Amino acid sequence: MQQWYRKLDFLTLFAWAGVVAVGLVAIYSTTHGPAAEYLPESVQQNFQRQFMWSLVCLGFVIGTLFFPIRFFQRIAYPVYALVIGLLGLTLAIGESVGGAKSWIDLGFAQIQAAEIAKPGTVLGVAALLTSRRPDSNNVRYAVGAVVMLLIPAVLILMQNDTGTALVFLGLIPIMLFWSGLPIPTMLLMVAPAIVGYFVIYELTWIAVILGIIITGYIFWRTGERYMGILAGLATGGTILVTAVALTSVLAPHQVARIKSFTNPDAPQYRKGVGFNLVQSKAAIGSGGMTGKGFMEGTQTQGAYVPEQSTDFIFSVIGEEFGFVGSVVVLALFGLLLVRIVQLGAQVKHPFANMMAAGAVGVYTIHIFINLGMVTGLLPVIGIPLPFVSYGGSALLANTSMLAVVLDLHMRRDDFSIYGY
After folding, report:
1. Which of the pair, 185 or 369, is modelled with greater confidence?
2. From CA 335, how far away is CA 320, in angstroms rounded?
3. Could you read off the pLDDT of 262-272 as tens digits, one per residue?
């Protein structure tokens, strides 16, 4: 028992508890202020439900630590198949919330299948990428991993949940790079997103220059003509398709939603699709250096920011705790991410490394997109802040990945040095 106690990484647990506590404080503030009586009754109970989910997650972490290391490898593929089946079931009988048909009603609770699919998919992909022998074909395993990530992404897109689908797509370069994919190949995979971002901002000339630089770099690093051609097609094609889509293909309301984040204060957006962002930026900006104080934020307590306990919860932190409070939260996230990477690296087994990479990938994508949303750097696509935003399914899914990494690290001496 004493040895078990010494091997558990309490610093990582502290970082996890810190961000969860921040979320509980922010959720309490959004549901117990002057405007709380005007909120739907279900929303008024957000804090109580999130607190109960936090206790469930703590119990899940403790319970996970009792499983042997091979257990997770054995269940990886069955769990992956289960979550894919769950996503398919959601398409058939799921309920729509906020325009996304991604919820299953269990009677006593609702679960979001797309959130549960994240740890299941990471587990399956980690098992696949670390099951190959040294003399096996890496390309075949890489393609298999891409397919395993694309299947849930497509099913979630069919549920009209674009934001969550992007998380699975973002995991493709992260997990493949961690498994040994060369940098030029990874750059080839993310180049379309880079140039497309600037086209949306109507900075096509920058997108063209970046496309040329990326194409030249990939060709120079690989020395392969076909890689240069692929890079040129990927960047040039993205620029062309994005420009045509914005001008000739997408419906006006779709274009407005995409472009509203580039100028949310414009008259045509301010009271429509850009309203959330305008209110969010006003809340964060008014917080100043140290904030207005707990439950003293005018934007927060007046419920001016839509979805302020979920997607826009960082605006609550920014307004009531200011720049200092925001930095503290980011520092906790940074500590958590760094520790997970270190835990994975300390285990002499590739499965643990890939699980750590998958967990860090999911958290990083969520943090990057969510903070980009609330500050106007990225479109509003409905991505919660991990461990902080309200949502029991998301909290349990994110915590489960962390729990597995903690268990693998705690039992690191039991691992074979071989990945097969």
Report:
1. 369
2. 23
3. 655 555 555 55
